[in-house]
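Consider the tokenized backbone below.
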């Protein structure tokens, strides 16, 4: 926003407001064009929106969390957003679980400075919980497909921990290595390659 004239900034803000009226996901745009003084309010809205029941709202909030963490990894609010994403994994919260797993995977891939030993340990525990929560049972095909999608994301997350933070890998990652070597859908296994 520093490079924008006041007039252009007002036009952008008007455009964002118009997009919001048509139910476009604007949270990431708000982050980009909000003054640092107002970011706290935007982050609070992001966290609130991750608990919405509308999938579009939740995914938009998670993507905004990812953008904020990438832009301000040393900020206290970035840590709060990351912990919120981890909580979604821990509680298997839907909608948003697969998106949260994938966005955390991306943070690991780029080796974002916010990722610490403690974060990896929490993710490792989440991987154990998610394995238990997504065991295949006598369920309808639609539920099995959804579990495959979750398990595919978990396998990718375990792979990123092995690739980038192997010194912190624990029982959760080892469990997903066992799953890779066991009887699992090829679509899930392919994420470990």
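A designed sequence for it:
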């Amino acid at each position: 926003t520093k490079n924008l004239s006041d007039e252009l900034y007002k036009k952008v803000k008007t455009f964002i407001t118009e997009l919001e009226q048509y139910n476009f996901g604007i949270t990431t745009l708000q982050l980009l064009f909000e003054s640092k003084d107002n970011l706290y309010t935007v982050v609070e809205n992001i966290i609130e929106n991750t608990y919405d029941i509308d999938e579009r709202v939740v995914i938009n909030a998670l993507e905004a969390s990812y953008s904020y963490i990438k832009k301000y990894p040393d900020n206290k609010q970035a840590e709060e957003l990351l912990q919120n994403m981890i909580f979604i994994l821990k509680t298997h919260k839907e909608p948003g679980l697969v998106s949260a797993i994938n966005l955390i995977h991306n943070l690991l891939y780029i080796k974002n400075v916010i990722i610490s030993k403690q974060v990896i340990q929490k993710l490792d525990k989440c991987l154990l919980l998610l394995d238990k929560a997504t065991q295949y049972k006598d369920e309808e095909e639609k539920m099995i497909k959804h579990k495959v999608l979750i398990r595919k994301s978990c396998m990718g997350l375990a792979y990123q921990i092995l690739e980038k933070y192997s010194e912190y890998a624990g029982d959760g990652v080892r469990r997903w290595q066992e799953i890779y070597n066991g009887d699992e859908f090829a679509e899930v296994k392919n994420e470990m390659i």
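The radius of gyration is 18 Å.
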